[in-house]
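Appendix C reproduces, verbatim, an entry submitted by the partner laboratory led by Prof. M.T., so that reviewers can inspect both the input and the predicted structure.
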Amino acid sequence: MEIAGVDATVVAEVERETSELLSRLIQIDTSNPPGNETAVAEFMRAWFREAGLEGEILGEPADRRSFVLRLQGQRPGPSLLLLAHEDVVPANAADWQVPPFSGLIKDDYVWGRGAVDIKNLVAAHAVAVKRLAASGADFAGTVTYACTADEEEGSVGGARWLVKHRPDLMRCAYVINEGGGGFLEHGGRRIYLLESGEKGTAQFRLVVHGEAGHASVPLRRGNAVLAAARIVEALVAHELPVVVDDSSRELVELLVDDPVLRLRLRDPATARAALADLATRDTRLADMIEPLYGFAFSPTIVQSNSIAVNVYPSRVDLSVDCRILAGHDEAEVEAEVRAALAGIDAEWELEWIGVIRGNASEYPTALSRAISVVLERLAPGAVLANSHSVGFTDSNWFRSAYPETIAYNFAPHVVEGYDAVTIRYHNVDERIHVRDLAVQALFAERLALELLR
């Protein structure tokens, strides 16, 4: 696919540079755990030094560090942060067509763990900053480049450490980060998803108590395993409140053609039934919208304190993943857990595993308008649809630390759409088309020039 308004020679050069850089980055195994992200930070410092640009390696512990570089404009103005993380999820090589840390470039794709999550942006943003510096482009303010540690687990440092310990470097007006940028073909248009916020996590453990005893007495009361099974069924069957807010509005307006169904989807009293109706027509769209209508209980792990098959355990731990919309909290989650289990004859208690509040940036803003302008130039006819991420990204730390910061998740593709790309996240045979990689670099470069005029 041609990229509108960009000379073919430029596209070819950016494809080559981004692909080669991404290939090298994939070859640095930063599977988290254990991470070892400092190896990427050191590589990027050396890569930028070859272009005459100097950044800093920051963070702790010593093997889990990040790299940050600031490019100053010609006059005062706002600051734009181009953000991506260095770590990746582990990969089982036996399941892949190619070695997952080979960085193989073949058939117009770069293959390997991190190709779309999210070393592609570590590479694309780097090339964008290098091109800005080399061109001597006239822009105001500051463009900051950051590749950060420990996003996948978030237990050590990375972006969270940086916003706390180096606000002098990281405080910014605008952030562009991973997520968003996938497109859907609908009604003869390409609808691009922009994420202005994200759900938080309210993960918990239900500790179910029972009476230990010999399993040869099948009618014995107090079997904690049976109680845990009843609890799982009750959690899944519980009808949770429906939340209809702006996180789903544009998706419904742009992607649901039936005007009556649109109205029903935007009314909390009818939204649940309307989602069921939508699922019979378009399962994919229903699956995109449903997580934005509140939270759900997703039991994921069941463990007992017995290792003997002929013994009733006295304790069963049931772990539950729960994601909460921006503006909601764990108190609401606990209230719904208690409501769901009110009729269950079991002794249990709730322990929080981890809670991170969801948050969102204002929308629309100068940043979303600049994204729309640049996207239209690169992909004429493209339309933005605001949404929220149902997962977690490091944008959360910036919104929490700096409430005035506008943080969006957006990195456009033009060759492959939403369905083709998102299925590769954390999956086998992860790869990105070289043209999409080039577009992400060109987009970041042009966004800086449009926003920081």
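The longest helix spans residues 8-26. Additional entries are available on request from the coordinating office.
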